[in-house]
Amino acid sequence: MLHTLMQSPYRANMHLILNILKKKDDFLALQDGVLIALNNSFFLDKILYTSANLYLIKEDVYARGIINNISSDFTLISYMHFVSLTLKNKTQMIW
């Protein structure tokens, strides 16, 4: 399953997201969702604990000027790779 976080993790129901995220799931953060990858984010340790595949849209990271402050546990991808993730995952959840 592909989980797509588009809003700030401080505005999303992260408790629910973290509880249903499985090890084989793909998790993609874009727009303000990329804030979850900040090194001092309250949710960083919790999302890393899920062992899901973690991705960030690189354009959104650069647009927010946080490239030097994000966790190396996330993979930066382009919007083209985002399309590949949607094709790979038959089921998707947008947060």
Topology, pairings included?
Layout: E1 2-5, H1 14-20, E2 26-29, H2 44-49, E3 53-57, H3 58-63, E4 75-77, H4 79-88, E5 92-94
Parallel strand pairs: 1-2, 1-5, 2-3, 3-4
Q: What oligomeric state best describes the polypeptide chains here?
A: single chain
CATH C-level class: Alpha Beta
Share of β-strand residues: 15-25%
Look up the CATH topology: Hypothetical Protein Ychn, Chain: A
Helix coverage percent of residues?
Answer: 25-40%
CATH level-two architecture: 3-Layer(aba) Sandwich
CATH H-level homologous superfamily name: DsrEFH-like
Q: First CA to last CA: what distance?
A: 13 Å
Radius of gyration: 12 Å
Average pLDDT confidence is: 96
What is the tally of beta strands?
5
Strand count, sense and barrel status of the largest sheet are: 5 strands, parallel
| Total of helices | 4
Provide a descriptive summary of the structure in words:
There is one protein chain. This protein has 95 residues and is α/β, with parallel strands linked by helices. It has a single domain (2-94), classed as Hypothetical Protein Ychn, Chain: A (3-Layer(aba) Sandwich), CATH 3.40.1260.10. It is built from four helices and five strands. The protein has helices spanning 14-20, 44-49, 58-63, 79-88, and strands at residues 2-5, 26-29, 53-57, 75-77, 92-94. A five-stranded parallel sheet has the order 4-3-2-1-5. The longest helix is centred in the C-terminal third of the chain and has 10 residues, at 79-88. The protein is globular and about 30 Å long.
